[in-house]
Specification:
heterodimer, A: about 260 residues, mainly alpha, MetI-like fold, 11 helices, flat, B: about 270 residues, 2 domains, two-stranded antiparallel sheet
């Protein structure tokens, strides 16, 4: 009897793993579609915030404050309803209503805006802590502004921001769980939370379905973390020579969550 | 009274303010109480769980330390929304499971369905659901707070504690009057972060079917049609969500000011760079 119970629990677990791997791809898609756009946008916004021009800096500050200061959940609702409001006057006549209102487009759009604000704050902090001595040395050897940026500011900024940015990416992945709570679900296009909820409504087994969904989130978070850690190790390779090759390990610090 | 004032404003300025002060809108404004209560109650619980978690992490007893580490690690790998939905459901089922021993027959319990029998089903009221939502906010953000407090306990300079010992303070006095007292200055920036997260997470209350500001905004904004009055307005949801967007930014702004003040107070006379 005990044996049977254990094996049936295992079977249910494996069935859930099989059922949920496709939904997991939707979460992965949302994260993957947002990061390549969000990353340059974040850096652009950080540079804008650091700009000496008042309107440029002001705009970046307000954008970052607005998106960091409000829940992503509301941002999703807000953008979806704004897009819907323009449906009759803009998207329909242009014939792009199917694309613009599609969760697979709108989801990454909102995530990009959100992650670029969070990322910008991280890169801005790093930008401010680029070693002054290196900047002065670069000026002293006669580098132009563009050259100083390319060879001093940029690599330093990236290196300083990377650990925090890694966390931002992991938490961006976590926030993809909100997409289908706010945007319409089309056919079988369901993400982990959605599918887990659907499975729960069938047999009320909250422990099994939510654990498996959580397991997928955990696994993919770990993969993201290792990839970013590998990039970080390449970025800081030349800094290893000093203390017996002991570089600072990346740590997930949950500080930048939405 | 309110109505006459509003009508007077409408008559003089032409702005129809009576609409945004009608019964449904007043209910919307009143539902802010859920958000505020959940934020404060959730934060109080998160602070309690945070202190417990940090104490567990620093405990000399290994299993307790493992538990503390597990608790603070879980929020790093799994989204908070998942916990937010999971805890109330899991708690409900746990209670039902306990009920089932007294309420159901052995055959029913062996059946495997859920709930085992209808007698064991626990019907939750909105208030109970709401309280459970607050508890799950407390559990999830308590893990964040535990990390912050654990870090802050470690950040207090050892020399301060050694100096206190040299002056002859007892261990208990050192802990409360020096370690914990100074810890706040180091923990506040992190705790302010946790508070902001928690505040933003209160928008998720509607996921647990609580009629909070988000759910009301969706209802009020949806196209409004009465057979007698015709179409009152089309899809206005975006207006209501923009209001919520601004409302949360305002809350963040206020919290920031308060935490700045607290930080200045907590680090008074301490050599902490801000």
């Amino acid at each position: 009897m005990e044996n049977l119970l254990a094996s049936s629990a295992l079977v249910a677990f494996v069935t859930d793993l099989k059922l949920l791997w496709k939904p997991a791809l939707f979460n992965v898609y949302f994260a993957f579609a947002s990061i390549p756009v969000g990353f340059p946008l974040a850096i652009g916004l950080a540079l804008m915030k650091n700009s000496s021009s008042w309107p440029v800096s002001r705009f970046a500050r307000m954008f970052i404050y607005a998106f960091r200061g409000s829940p992503l959940f509301i941002q999703f609702f807000m953008f979806y309803s704004i897009m819907l409001a323009f449906n009759q006057s803009l998207w329909k006549p242009m014939g792009i209503d199917g694309v613009v209102l599609h969760p697979l487009f709108l989801g990454p759009l909102v995530l990009v805006l959100n992650t670029s604000a969070y990322g910008a704050e991280i890169f801005y902090g790093a930008l401010r802590s680029v070693p002054k001595g290196q900047l002065e040395a670069a000026r002293a050897v006669g580098m132009g502004r563009a050259n100083v940026f390319k060879s001093v500011t940029w690599p330093n900024m990236l290196r300083l921001a990377w650990p925090a940015y890694t966390n931002e990416v992991v938490f961006l992945f976590h926030s993809t769980a909100l997409v289908y709570f706010t945007l319409p679900v089309i056919n079988e296009q369901k993400d982990l939370m959605n599918k887990a909820g659907e499975l729960f409504e069938k047999d009320y087994n909250v422990f099994l379905h939510f654990s498996v969904a959580g397991l997928y989130f955990l696994l993919i978070s770990v993969v993201i973390f290792f990839v970013f850690d590998w990039i970080y190790s390449r970025m800081t390779k030349h800094l290893d020579t000093g203390s017996a090759g002991k570089r600072k390990k990346l740590k997930i610090r949950p500080q930048y969550v939405r | 009274m309110l109505e006459t004032i509003l009508q007077a404003i409408t008559a003089t300025t032409g702005l129809d303010l009576t609409y945004i002060f009608n019964g449904k809108h007043l209910a919307w404004y009143a539902s802010v109480r859920y958000t505020i209560f959940a934020a404060f109650f959730g934060a109080a619980l998160a602070l309690c769980f945070g202190v417990i978690g940090a104490a567990a992490k620093r405990s000399g007893f290994a299993p307790l330390r493992w538990f503390g580490n597990l608790y603070t690690t879980m929020v790093r790998g799994i989204p908070d929304v998942l916990f937010f939905l999971f805890f109330p459901l899991a708690f409900e089922q746990l209670i039902e499971y306990l009920f089932s021993f007294s309420q159901c027959t052995a055959a029913e319990r062996a059946g495997g369905g859920w709930p085992p029998c209808t007698a064991a089903q626990w019907y939750l009221s909105t208030t109970e659901y709401f309280l459970m939502a607050c508890v799950s906010l407390g559990i999830v953000y308590g893990a964040f707070a535990a990390n912050v407090i654990h870090g802050a306990m470690g950040a207090v300079p050892r020399q301060q504690l050694e100096a206190a010992r040299a002056f002859g303070f007892s261990s208990r006095q050192i802990f409360w009057r020096f370690h914990v007292r100074q810890m706040w200055a180091y923990a506040l920036p992190g705790l302010s972060n946790v508070w902001m997260l928690l505040l933003k997470a209160t928008s998720l209350l509607s996921l647990l079917q609580i009629a909070d500001i988000v759910q009301w905004a969706g209802k009020l904004g949806a196209a409004n049609y009465f057979p007698r009055a015709g179409l009152v307005h089309g899809d206005w949801r975006w207006k209501y969500y923009v209001v919520l967007f601004l409302f949360y930014i305002l809350l963040t702004l206020i919290s920031e000011k308060i935490f700045d003040y607290l930080q200045r107070r907590a680090s008074k006379g301490m050599a902490i760079e801000r």
